[in-house]
């Protein structure tokens, strides 16, 4: 059995039910249209705002001086301090090291060795 829309309409009239079109009433259609248009306008404004922010950031980046040079002449820095020795934690070391006997190494004795160009036996 096939679907007959004419029979369906007759049954509604018999039930005395009010007919509601598939698209809704005129007020509902206007409300859906308003919501859709408001959404489209909001998206256009949001994209425009994002474009303004990005263009301002690019302009600011182009104007700024990269790695600006210092405008004040550098002054000599003080000698580095040793906070541990200032606090008295590090043991006192002698100012000059004590001399040792091996300050100037002596050449090894060569009396027992044959000369380097001597033939091997």
Features:
elongated, 121 residues, mainly alpha, membrane
What topology emerges from the helices and strands here?
Layout: H1 5-15, H2 26-63, H3 83-87
Q: Beta-strand level of the residues, as a percent range? A: under 5%
Radius of gyration: 49 Å
Largest sheet, in brief, is: none
Overall pLDDT: 76
Unreliable stretches: none
The rough form would be described as elongated
The count of helical stretches stands at 3
The portion of residues assigned to helices is: 40-55%
Task: Write a compact overview of the structure shown.
The chain has 3 helices and no strands.
Characterization of this structure:
This protein is mainly α and 121 residues long. It has a domain at 25-64. The protein is 45% helix and 0% strand. The chain is built from three helices and no strands. It has helices at 5-15, 26-63, 83-87.
């Amino acid at each position: 059995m096939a679907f007959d829309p004419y029979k369906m309409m007759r049954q509604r009239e018999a039930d005395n039910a009010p007919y509601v079109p598939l698209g809704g009433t005129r007020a509902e259609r206007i409300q859906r249209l308003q919501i859709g248009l408001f959404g489209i306008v909001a998206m256009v404004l949001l994209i425009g705002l994002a474009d303004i922010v990005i263009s301002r950031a690019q302009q600011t980046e182009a104007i700024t001086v990269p790695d600006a040079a210092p405008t004040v002449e550098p002054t000599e820095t003080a000698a580095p301090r040793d906070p541990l020795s200032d606090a008295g934690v590090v043991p006192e070391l002698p100012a000059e090291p004590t001399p040792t006997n091996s300050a100037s190494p002596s050449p090894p004795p060569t009396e027992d060795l044959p000369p380097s160009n001597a033939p091997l036996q």
